[in-house]
Amino acid sequence: MPELSPAQKKYLLQKKREKYLVNISRILLFLVFLILWEISSRFGWIDSFIFSSPWAILKNFAEMCRDQSLFVHIGITLAETLISFFFVVLLGIGTAVLLWLCPKLSRVLEPYLVILNSLPKSALAPLLIVWLGANIRTIIVAGMSVAIFGSIINLYTGFRETDPDKGKLIATLGGTRRDELLKIVLPSSIPLILSIMKVNIGLCLVGVIIGEFIGARQGLGYLIIYSSQTFKLTTVLMSILILCVIAMGLYGILNLIEKRCLKHS
Amino acid sequence: MKPLLEVRELSLSYHTPSGETPALSHISFDLMPGEFLAIVGPSGCGKSTLLNVICGLLEPEKGSVLMNGTPVSRGDPRMGYMLQKDHLLEWRTIYKNILLGLEIRRQLTPEKLFYIEQMLRTYGLDKFRSARPSQLSGGMRQRAALIRTLALKPELLLLDEPFSALDYQTRLNVSDDIGRILKKENKPAILVTHDISEAISMADRVIILTSRPATVAGIIPIELTVENRTPLSSRNAPDFKSYFNQIWKELNDHA
User: Fold this and answer.
1) Which residue of A has its CA nearest to B54?
2) How far apart are CA B136 and CA B111, in angstroms?
């Protein structure tokens, strides 16, 4: 490696300092928020019964960890989210491929997909409970319902945007539409599929929580509703914080998978 | 000698909701074995359409295209086609890109693979076999695209402005390169271009098309007084300029 010039060194050092400053500020912001929250509830500036406090939340967390009830709720919510995400990936890609293979079918279905996609899916939840019963199946379907239509539309749009000349290349080499799908459309859509899925795992979590609000005996959504009805707002806040961590974690995992896949291709 | 390709009275129109656009009108010509034909015409005159009909991707409304006496079919294995861009797939290595046609036609036979090995070595792509297309220069990419087409051992090569996406210097070098390779492999070819110099430098005969709907305005045999003719040396031939002026005049008379 060549010797860096002083100007380049200075530039790199400045960049590094900037990054450091941003990270420190982020952490500080969080700590200041927590401390202010704790102080204001201790001094009675805010009502600690409804606003709780970081310390109370931590104590509540430790307690629920000890009797292990929390792990069941987290586990159930995570499992439901992952299962509905799995089906969204499967059905989303499958349907988009089908639409790509039959453009006529896609023209017929297009308005329905748009309507289903823009419909607020939480409106469907009470109906799902009646139709499918208050069980894990309903909640998985609720999770899927939030993500599936958007992913079908986005995937199909992406599939259609592949370079038509690449399709011509396949045709001149004697290939069929199936060859075009397998050799061009799917491989070139891998980055798109990954980025859509990154968004979708969060949407599945949203759907699962909606489902748990109305038709569950376990899970973080149930915990939130149950605790709010019994005025245990500390537990509500704790559950919300855990949801934050879960959402961040799931997104992070997919982000990692995306980075790894794109590096190899 | 019997012609390799007979194009007879081709006519074709494009249909859109707003109306009908005639693109080709009564086009006829022959291609002899081993011959290099160039088709020039004003842009948008239907040159690429003509090539699509010749290789069977488009059905003509009237007329026929016969190769060795039999009509061409969609994706005809006797034809090789080079598009305007190389369209090498970035998610495949150069070697895998070259295998694309053989994969599609399910012809990954030892003979064909051996033929590819020979071409890779002859044309200096051997050391790039596991490189990604983006790591290659424009010229090398075109070579890879050519080998991908030649791997299927087509009897006739169709070149649809294969150099138009390159910068001028690369373009001269690549057309020289491809011209030499085709001579060496003894492949007849039809080159579609709007570049008159390119047509004269590479072709044995130049077909001039009128503007839309395209008809044949004239066919000019190119006989340059130059030894060991290659596309680059052709440009130095004393009669190059007169051919250029002749074609230029024909093009303008029919524009």
Assistant:
1) A172
2) 27
- A165/B152 CB distance under 8 A: no
Q: Are B157 and B149 in contact (CB under 8 A)?
A: yes
d(CA A57, CA A238): 6
Q: Which two tokens stand for residue A169?
A: 């290349």
Name the one residue in this structure whose structure tokens are 């409304």: B61
Burial class (CB in 10 A: 0-12, 13-18, 19+), B167: exposed
Report pTM. 0.83
- Indicate the CATH number for domain B5-78+154-253: 3.40.50.300
Put simply, whether A160 touches B (Cβ < 8 Å) is no
Tell whether A188 is within 8 A of chain B (Cβ).
yes
Tens place of pLDDT for every residue, chain A, 265 residues?
677 888 889 999 999 999 999 999 999 999 999 999 999 999 989 888 888 999 999 999 999 989 888 999 999 999 999 999 999 999 999 999 999 999 999 999 999 999 999 998 888 888 888 898 888 899 999 999 999 999 999 999 999 999 888 988 999 888 889 999 999 999 999 999 999 999 999 999 999 999 999 888 899 999 999 999 998 999 999 999 999 999 999 999 999 998 888 876 5
Domains (ranges, CATH) in chain A? 72-264 (1.10.3720.10)
Domain boundary assignment for chain B: 5-78+154-253
ipTM: 0.84
Going by C-alpha positions, the residue among A23, A17, A34 that lies closest to residue A241 is A34
| Record: contact B104-A165, CB cut-off 8 A | no
CB-based burial label for A34 (10 Å; 0-12, 13-18, 19+): middle
Q: Chain-centre distance of CA A220, in angstroms?
A: 16
Distance, in Å, from the CA atom of A242 to the CA atom of A6, rounded to the nearest integer, reads: 47
Interface probe for B, chosen from A173, A261, A265 (most Cβ of B below 10 Å), is: A173
